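$ ./design --mode recover --in tokens.txt
reading tokens...
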């Protein structure tokens, strides 16, 4: 079942809205909510638009649409098709209600009122066995997207990849700096070599020019 949902701006990880969770749920998912914040910070323009990240007994599913990340924490056994159908419902309604305002918002949780729609939609997706007999869920089931191509990762892989990217970025900067130093040193060595090679010739030519000038002028 869907346990908790957060919506954030993709460009800077600013939280825009979140489900209101009870104290027990908040305590149970404390670690996974921290992981969700990490995911928001790791989102880049090259990130997969849909991804499921496994972490212990839960899976964090996220969807990116129009510079907004919709992320829900669900039990690992919860069907991915339902999780992404739920996120699709949120993205459509959120875009209709707040889409033009997203880029201008400066304070966190500016759209806290969206929790009403999230809570209502989450209840619809809560019990897949009971919901399957409801006509509205039958309609949603018919609209479910094929998720076979959705990227699946685990939290350890995400942490490792992020650490590697950070280190690779630092290494790349260091290599560029060192490369520039080597290029400057190479130019200086080449210049010194040319100077040593042609300085005597230049000196002799200059000497003859002085003699010629003194003799004829």
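writing sequence...
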């Amino acid at each position: 079942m869907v346990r908790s949902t957060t919506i954030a701006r993709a460009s800077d990880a600013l939280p825009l809205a979140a489900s209101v969770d009870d104290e027990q749920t908040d305590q149970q998912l404390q670690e996974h909510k921290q992981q969700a914040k990490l995911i928001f910070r790791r989102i880049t323009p090259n990130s997969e638009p849909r991804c499921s990240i496994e972490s212990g007994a839960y899976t964090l599913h996220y969807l990116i649409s129009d510079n907004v990340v919709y992320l829900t924490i669900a039990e690992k056994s919860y069907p991915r098709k339902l999780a992404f159908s739920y996120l699709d419902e949120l993205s459509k309604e959120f875009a209709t209600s707040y889409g033009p305002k997203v880029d201008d918002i400066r304070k966190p949780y500016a759209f806290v009122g969206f929790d009403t729609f999230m809570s209502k939609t989450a209840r619809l997706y809560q019990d897949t066995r009971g919901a399957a007999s409801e006509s509205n869920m039958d309609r949603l089931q018919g609209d479910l997207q094929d998720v076979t191509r959705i990227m699946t990762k685990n939290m350890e892989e995400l942490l490792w990849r992020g650490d590697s990217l950070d280190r690779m970025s630092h290494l790349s900067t260091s290599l560029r700096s060192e490369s520039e130093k080597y290029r400057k040193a190479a130019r200086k060595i080449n210049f010194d070599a040319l100077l040593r090679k042609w300085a005597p010739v230049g000196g002799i030519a200059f000497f003859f020019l002085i003699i010629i000038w003194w003799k004829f002028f």
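exit 0
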